[in-house]
From TrEMBL:
Protein name: SMP-30/gluconolactonase/LRE family protein
Species for this entry: Pseudoduganella chitinolytica
InterPro entries for the chain: 6-blade_b-propeller_TolB-like (IPR011042), SGL (IPR013658), SMP-30 (IPR005511)
Entry's transmembrane regions: none
Chain ranges of the SMP-30/Gluconolactonase/LRE-like region domain: 17-263
Protein family: Belongs to the SMP-30/CGR1 family.
Domain of life per record: Bacteria
Length: 294
């Protein structure tokens, strides 16, 4: 397929752009800039605005009852944004071992509306595999579901919800795993390697599954999106104007627009586009993420 045209969202520059989400109820996109402690919104009229949170927000998802759920520095929170620019946060749960230098990272809801996010040690150069993956549902915050992660990323689910994907984007890993997923209990099992980006390019950052069941991975450091079939075969690459794409998701009324956030690399050749947020239409349809139901 032809390379799609890419539209840059005006007036947006993120040091570490992450966690784009489409809220069908309000017809708006949301995403975060982690170190800036900022939550961004792009509405249906093309207007952007942002809110300053009290601490770093790493990932978010719309809630069925309104507002957002977010993985932040010190736990998972309920987040409400107000027209006057203020932000209200309420703690939903905090892991007992979320120590100094750690925070939540990538997050997404499963098809049943459970919110998942994992933790990481922020200084990636330390190479600490102390990250863990957690589930938030009607029982509150779970015990760790997956452990031993350097930089948790890449959460998404197959169209039927019965396969869960998870990646570790640290240079020491570069792996994407698939799990069998029990939709009734929210318990993953039978972990296996789905894709090893050492066989391709980049590091597997945030990701999303489309309506065909294909897994779109942001290849951080390689400046592209990689689409893998449900069998784990690479079948498409889309080059991007920045070096460090961080996460992507489908949205828009027809679910045919892909939004991609990015991270500033600090390299001169990336100065014009690093930190931008872009929209593109890759010619396939996405799936609507379930809002957080709890």
């Amino acid at each position: 397929m032809a390379q799609p045209s890419i539209e840059r969202i005006d007036g947006v520059h993120c040091a570490t752009g992450e966690s784009p989400a489409w809220d069908a109820a309000t017809r708006a996109w949301y995403w975060v800039d982690i170190p800036a402690k900022r939550i961004w919104r792009l509405d249906a009229a093309g207007r952007t605005r942002s809110w300053q949170a009290p601490e770093m927000v790493a990932c978010l998802a719309p809630r069925a009852r309104g507002g957002l759920v977010a993985g932040m520095e010190t736990g998972m929170f309920d987040v409400d944004l107000f027209d006057n620019g203020s932000v209200a946060v309420t703690l939903l749960g905090k892991p007992a071992d979320l120590g100094a230098g750690m925070r939540f990272n990538d997050g997404r809801t499963d098809r049943q509306g459970r919110f998942w996010s994992g933790t990481m040690f922020m200084d990636m150069s330390a190479g600490k595999d102390v990250g863990k993956l957690y589930r938030y549902d009607g029982n509150g915050l779970s015990a760790p579901v997956v452990e031993g992660l350097f930089t948790q990323n890449g959460l998404s689910w197959s169209p039927d919800g019965r396969t869960m994907y998870l990646s570790d984007s640290h240079p020491n890993s570069r792996l994407v795993w698939a799990f069998d997923y029990d939709v009734a209990t929210g318990v993953p099992s039978h972990r296996r390697v789905f894709a090893n980006l050492a066989d391709h390019v980049g590091r597997p950052d945030g990701a999303v599954v489309d309506a065909d069941g294909c897994y779109w991975s942001c290849a951080n450091d390689a400046g592209c999106l990689l689409r893998f079939t449900p069998a784990g075969k690479l079948d498409r690459r889309i080059d991007l104007p920045f070096m460090k794409p961080s996460m992507c998701t489908f949205g828009g009324d027809d679910l045919e627009t892909l939004i991609v956030t990015s991270i500033v690399s600090g390299k001169p050749e990336d100065a014009a586009w690093g930190g931008a947020v872009v929209l593109l239409r890759p010619g396939v349809q996405g799936l609507a993420d379930a809002p957080c139901a709890f």
